[in-house]
Amino acid sequence: xxxxxxxxxxxxxxxxxxxxxxxxxxxxxxxxxxxxxxxxxxxxxxxxxxxxxxxxxxxxxxxxxxxxxxxxxxxxxxxxxxxxxxxxxxxxxxxxxxxxxxxxxxxxxxxxxxxxxxxxxxxxxxxxxxxxxxxxxxxxxxxxxxxxxxxxxxxxxxxxxxxxxxxxxxxxxxxxxxxxxxxxxxxxxxxxxxxxxxxxxxxxxxxxxxxxxxx
Length: 215
Hints:
By secondary structure, the protein is of the alpha+beta class. Helices cover about 40% and strands about 15% of the residues. It starts with 6 loop residues before the first helix and ends with a helix.
């Protein structure tokens, strides 16, 4: 027996990404008009992240029926991408699909506030960093929510003492595995810029990255 999404959940998943396929390499529009002025065309699918029934792709036997049909277990895709992720579940893991979903929802939010959809290159980058460093990104989101005008941060060990005039955010080596490598990825995408001038590594957030984190 399949645990299918209710109609309201399907509609919610579609609306949260503006009816755009959540695959960052696709981003196809999935809804539009028919020739009939009273009709519309839908090419989208509310796909399960963990399968709706035993034996399906990414099926999780520990999930309850309520969890399986909840919007948290769904992702909005075009028909082609929905078939792709189910035909190759080893390439499209739960973690990968969750990173797509987060990036798609945040870029849709950015489009609402900025008036334009970020290009494919940015959404692919956003999905990649969501997969690689979700904990660090969530900490940055909380910090920027509490300190909306702050743009600089340093990285320290917990027992270091650092004196500097001015306000800055701090991220600790002790709290994030391979913090230096994660920051290098963000630098490679031009989301942060290093401005170190002493023995402590110091960075500045770029505005495009700020807009994504705070969307």
